[in-house]
Write a structure and sequence with these properties.
It contains five helices and eight strands; from the N terminus they run ααβββββαβαβαβ. By secondary structure, it is α/β, with parallel strands linked by helices. A hairpin with a 3-residue loop joins strand 1 and strand 2. It is globular.
């Protein structure tokens, strides 16, 4: 027994606690333990790509999309930017979404930005889009802009219907580096 106690004293404190059966909470990872074996990969988005629409900024007046200023609500399609004839989320109806249902090739997902906050749309409107095979994501406009940028950077067939937020914003959207 005395030999076992003497052997424990020769070990480092962390090893001594582990050998004695007591929980070891003081273990500290060094860079050699984990970080040297893992690699980080960074993908830089290319907003200058002529084939991809990126929302670069927004204000209470409109949006900057791929270098173009769009005043008021807009519909951002895979290869076009259009004025969208809605004044508020209450104007988002079956008819106002018909533009997105008619696109060819068909879009996978429609991101709707409803202004300063997330607003509930009529369930029948959302159901009609699902029947047409289009998923709909309803968000406040700042988050909808970021979601649309993410989806297009992933090469997804996405479109956005955006209503400018009424609040005061700097107008710059951070693009992931």
């Amino acid at each position: 027994m005395a030999m076992a106690v003497a052997a424990l004293r020769l070990l480092r404190p962390a090893a001594r606690r582990a050998a004695s059966g007591a929980p070891c909470r003081a273990h500290r990872l060094t860079p050699a333990d984990d970080e040297l074996y893992q690699r980080t990969r960074v993908t830089v988005l290319e907003p200058e790509s002529p084939n991809i629409m990126f929302i670069e900024g927004y204000t209470s007046r409109g949006f900057t999309v791929s270098g173009d200023l769009v005043v008021g609500p807009c519909a951002i399609l895979p290869r076009a930017i259009l004025q969208w004839n809605v004044g508020s989320y209450k104007d988002i109806t079956h008819d106002s979404l018909s533009l997105f249902r008619l696109l060819e090739p068909r879009i996978e997902i429609l991101v709707l930005g409803t202004g300063d906050r997330v607003e509930r749309l009529h369930p029948a409107v959302l159901k009609q889009m699902r029947v047409c095979g289009i998923a709909v994501e309803v968000q406040d406009t700042p988050n909808a802009c970021a979601t649309f940028n993410f989806l297009t950077s992933e090469k997804r067939m996405a479109a956005a219907g955006l209503i400018p937020p009424r609040g005061t914003y700097t107008g710059a959207l951070p693009l992931p580096a």
